[in-house]
Amino acid sequence: MKKIQILGTGCPKCMKLEEVSRKAADELGIEYEMEKVKDINKIMEFGVMMTPALVVDGEVKVVGKVPSTEDIKKYIQ
Fold first, then answer.
1. DSSP E strands, 1-77
2. Is 14 one of the annotated active-site residues of the chain?
3. What pLDDT, in 10s, does the model give residues 25-45?
4. Which listed residue (3, 11, 39, 50) is catalytic?
5. Is residue 11 annotated as part of the catalytic site, yes or no?
6. Count of structural domains within the chain
7. Helical (H) or strand (E) element with 15
8. Domain containing 65 — which CATH number?
9. Model-level pTM?
10. 76 pLDDT band (50/70/90 cuts)?
């Protein structure tokens, strides 16, 4: 099972990243767990200074932008 984390304080871009990530994972038909990380200290533990950020299985994949569904599929496969 993939662990997908959305790092962000709840801004519109953060919500969009979550929406697009769910869509990508659902289209791939994979099992995943989605977690929203809103605590700024926890976000900083990932070394992330800009949100939103996408983390897959503990590895930071995207910082500061919302990629396309197709790009996210590449990150979570």
1. 2-7, 32-37, 53-56, 59-63
2. yes
3. 999 999 999 999 999 999 999
4. 11
5. yes
6. 1
7. helix 12-28
8. 3.40.30.10
9. 0.95
10. very high
Q: Which of 4, 6, 14, 25 does the annotation list as catalytic?
A: 14
Q: φ and ψ at 74, to 5 degrees? A: -65, -40
* Domain range for 66: 2-76
Contact of 73 with 32, CB cutoff 8 Å: no
Residues 42-63 have pLDDT tens digits of: 999 999 999 999 999 999 999 9
Cα separation, 30 vs 53, in Å, equals: 20
Q: Which two tokens stand for residue 51?
A: 């949100």
Continuous segment of H or E residues that includes residue 46: none
**What phi and psi values does residue 66 have, to the nearest 5 degrees?**
-115, 105
